[in-house]
Task: structure prediction
Amino acid sequence: GYSSAASDVYKRQLCDDANTRKGRIKMRNVKLCAIQMAISPNSEENIKKGVEYVRRAHQDGANVILLSELFLTPYFCQKENYDFFDLAIENIKETEFYKTFSNLARELEVVIPLSFFEKSGVAYYNSIIVIDADGSDLGVYRKTHIPTGECYEEKFYFTPGDTGFKVFNTKYLRLGIGICWDQWFPETARCLTLMGAEALFFPTAIGSEPVLPIDSKCHWQNTMCGHAAANIIPVVAANRVGKENIMNSSMTFYGSSFIANEEGTKVCELNREEEGYIIYEFDICLLYTSDAADE
Result:
């Protein structure tokens, strides 16, 4: 069974206790990145743009790079349409989509969580496969919490995930991932942290609320900043931008991708309309000293 104590020992061993040793502090610096893009109906264009941003982020030193949820296509979940099941991928590792980013990760020595619409047997999932810095596959996480509602008709397409929450032991850090709607639930962040995660990533597709007179942007960010503060862990969220039309439906995605530090403070953020990326460097070992100080 799972032991939170064992996980804590593992993390602290990685940093050689992270406390003073011969008057010095042990360091393990990692640069985390979120990419924000407008999504085209042309999947090849989305792949090309994603690759370009990953390369640019790597040039600026990024080690772990997050693209947004289901960025291969426009957000088809706006409408229920059986034709869209044809977008699902049955064997992700056999696709040029996966191979492109696997080769890129290996070339640049970066970690890339890759979001995709998955078909497995008779079930369909909103999934993410984590590609390590050597291009290897570290496994798949399937989205646990599935929303439903006007323009977010995900329960029509996706089965609730059967993987449980997962933490991926990448080259640079232990990475916990939730997918979009997962971020609204405090148990997501808490479970991933207790499982040994050293940062939390949330790929997202969120925007206008067609039937509600609200703007959820601040609520969306504040919830994840709360996860960061409560669990003393960095949080990275990557959203898409732009207006997308699906059949007779339209949504405007509000971007606002951000990175929060272990105190829950936003340390960098993109605006509602711009494409680009943000990077922030964390000393993972120093986070453990903060954690210990609060115990």
